[in-house]
Amino acid sequence: MALQSRITQGRKFDQVRTGAAEIFLRDGFSGASVDDIARSARVSKATLYSYFPDKRLMFREVLRSTLDNAFQQLPFNPDQAGPAPEALAQVVADMSQWLLTEPRLHLHRVIIAEAARFPEDALTYDRTLNERIVAPLAQLIDSWIAGGEIRAHDTTMSARQLVGLLIGQLQHRALLDTTDPTPEEIQQTAGATASLFLAAYR
What we know:
72% of the residues lie in helices and 0% in strands. It has 9 helices and no strands. The radius of gyration is 19 Å and the shape is elongated.
């Protein structure tokens, strides 16, 4: 049965979903208690269950809505002007900042943690990343190829590699370390990542 068809919409639906998102993104699926969710949403458990008949359904709806919001806007200017090296450095710096802000950081953590329990949602996350971030980035790289600044290659693959490098260096570190990267460290990582890309494809 489709996810949305099992959810009851109502006056407090957004309030309940927002409260559930706060707890699920903080504690994950197993760590989130219905009591905590009800307190966060400021509703009774009976009201909670009137919208979502079970916890799994509530979690999946939180993932769906958070994913839509997190990837709603591009983290970089798709019409980035200027020579490829300078333009790429700015694009990578913008993406670096975007990856480290909420709700993307906690969403990434929860998706990884719950991939075995919710494989369909993990695939949706990966597909959304490809459609809304990797594909526009590949198109930007294509424009540099057309201008003769970057050599012809599989730009979907290289865009995916570029995003993966940033996720591995920044998001994973932020999730595993208790300290956030400093602005200087973010810029250094972004610059090194852009240089690595240019060394391979310029």
